[in-house]
Amino acid sequence: MKQQNQWILLMSTSIVSFMSTIDASIVNIAIPKMSRDLNILNNQAEWIVSVYLVLICVLLIFFGKLSDQIGRVRIFQTGTIIFVLGSLFCGLSVNLPMILGARVIQALGASMTMATNFSIITDIFPPNKHGLALGVNSSFVQIGNIAGPGVGGLILTWFNWHFIFFVNVPIGIIAYILGHHFFPHAPLPHKRLKIDFLGFTTYAGMVTAFFLMIFWGQVIGFGDLRIMGLLTVTGILLILFVMVEHRVPEPLIDLRIFHNLGFSFGILSAMLVYACGYFNNVIMPFYLQDRLLLSSAVAGIILMAVPILNIFSAPTGGYIADRIGAEKVSFYALFIFLIPEVIFIMIQPQWSLAWLVIGLALFGTANGAFQNNPMIMGNAAPEFQGIAGSIAALGRNLGMAIGLALATSLLYFGISLQGGKRITTYPDAHPDWFVGGMHFAYQIALGMILVAISLLGIVLYHKRKKTA
Known about the structure:
The protein is built from 18 helices and no strands. By secondary structure, it is an all-alpha fold.
């Protein structure tokens, strides 16, 4: 494939990655307006966010497995069209059932593209450029993860909430046309599809129970017996899933993929990093607007330090990873994470804003330099590339969900420790309690980064032993 075509295809897959990722968070800022326009309660409007995220995680592995059988490009391009149609239907929705149905269609398409984009990139680029190409794609994905509220706010400034979805339509069509013109077209394989329905059923039940536990636990508390029951159900379904996968001839996930330490620890470390990233999304807007009393515009500009630095550090980290290895680059990047986490643990309202900007900028630099996608894909054998990309995307979404739950729960637990009683809202009468709660949450985030450093340290140690 011509080098020019490779980069055009990379832009096509990255644009779709950005759209499908940003749609997990962009709706949050429009929830109040949507609830008023659709005449529904705020907690009902939250279903519009939740159904998208949960369904993507349920379907990711299925489409990764299917793409290995009928072709990754075919699944990706079909997913792009379905996502565009779902976006159009979301924008045309006038009631809750309509928009929930449209979000299901949108999630179906997004899961198809997320399950295949990494493996397509590793297919079209030579191995010595995987780091750079996946780094560029990672920039789009990371920006999609954190730019949703900002982009949504800008759209809502001039247009109504329908345009949050309509904007995907022309961009998605252009990405599809580029892909249709430049992607290699392989014939449909003439072989019987082998789908592990029992494995998929137990997996889907496990993921659904896990997310229900996460979302409901934030409302009623994670110590509630009902949440403990959901945790038990999740654990039982996980055990059943592993038992099924060991027994069926064509499993949904060939569990041998996890025998590679670099792959397994790469997934775990990536989940920890994504979870820590969500601490900023949840806690920093409160600190900037409620504690420092900054306007939403100024707060938005300060928070842009993360994606701006991420844009430059992700492809740079990928370029270096192609030369010294993704594990080494990611290992070094994790040490950079320690600096902003320490700043966030120690920062006080009377400190200069420059410290906060420095912390966020360093976080963005480390976030981009952390080469989770090249690390994960590079440790998966060629026959596992399709499913490896799906598992990488699943790890990202699970990490974000875990980070959301942890950040919220730890923040209010820390505030409660400060106040000596259970507190679940911002303590307007005692703003310093919030600062104490924030410091407590970031102490846990620091611990999570140290765990990730240990995991990748073990991977590098075993690699060194093999080559010695």
